Deferrochelatase (Streptomyces lunalinharesii), 437 residues
Amino acid sequence: MSKQQDATATPPDDAPRTRPAPAPDGTAPQLSRRRLLGTVGAAGAAGLVVGGAGGALGASAAQGDAPAALTTLGSTEVAFRTAGAKHQAGITTPLQASGHLVAFDLAPGAGRKEAAALLRRWSQTARELMAGRTPQADTDVALDAGPSSLTVTFGLGRGFFDRTGLTARRPVQLDPLPAFSNDALDPRRSDGDLWIQIGADDALVAFHALRTLQKEAAGAARLRWQMNGFNRTPGATARPMTARNLMGQVDGTNNPKPSDPDFDRRIFVGADTAQEWMRGGSYAVVRRIRMLLDDWEQRSRTEQERVIGRRKDSGAPLTGGTETTPMKLDATGPDGLPVIPADAHARIAAPEANQGAAMLRRPFSFHDGFRDDGAPDAGLLFVCWQADPLRAFTQIQRKLDRGDALSPFLRHEASGLYAVPPAPSDGDYVAQPLLEG
């Protein structure tokens, strides 16, 4: 769980954008989630916020008055496929407030044909939901909401290739991850033939997408596991800031940034891959990491900062400066010892300590109640992205496994590795070149 990287920086063509609500086309009884909400442009131009209570909006609609506009939070939209970007949304998209991770196994008897049909359905539904449109036979859970930066990201697990008769086209990057000493993995909450990541800035919008896609899997795939996560809501701080995790630490300072000259090479699969269908795609490693918060919170702030190697209030390295100041790994104190301890998490996970290896971390926090001993069942739904897991996640995690001061406060309880193909063109579906090639 590296604190070294920041998922907040985003290229302009993948950032959520505010769009006017589409005009009704008058062709179908199908409802748009935004049909009752008027134009968004007025909200963006005038800074309008729907305030107080939903009752005001409900009364206006009932009386036939001019509909209120969406707030900026609700109106932001992320394209399923953006011009100039081959990757799926949800990789470089800024962190959303609410998220779901879910894995499915193909149903008994389902094979390549059924998998293709399912991914076609899912891809089309994701396009509709991310644009703020409501599918037919909908539950109406998100009827009065805008897209709220919704993203839906699809991945393929190792078993998918066996079930579809495509083992020969399975990338070597999907070879099983090695075992680590701190693993306590539950196989029932790990792996899976198909994986979906859902994120949105509204919890109902995120749940709506989850429920819709789960229903569409009926007959073709069965739920294997599902996890719920959250982050700080955009606008909750006076200015945009790097997120904090449940340990209270600034988490993600030195993430690779799209402006870095080697960003694409590190995060996305290049043209040199033997698997052409993965060009422009990425690999996701998913880990459910429980934090031993009772133990952590008994440590003083000074102890916590030495474990991490950064100040808790600002995220600055212990060698001084601001959050973005480079760490001085060779700095020593009056006692001759390193200012940033040799086993500090930030030191061990730093790219310069791992032959330049880096991964794009994009996690969610989770809290699933309390354990029998009263301790919180809480921590991080760790999701990281890289062009090659062996050269990124595995290399860094092996280093952490050998002496990270943070490891005693963590338990890795579930794990998954998924190939995430590039975004399909309009009318196509995710992994179509693989399944039809």
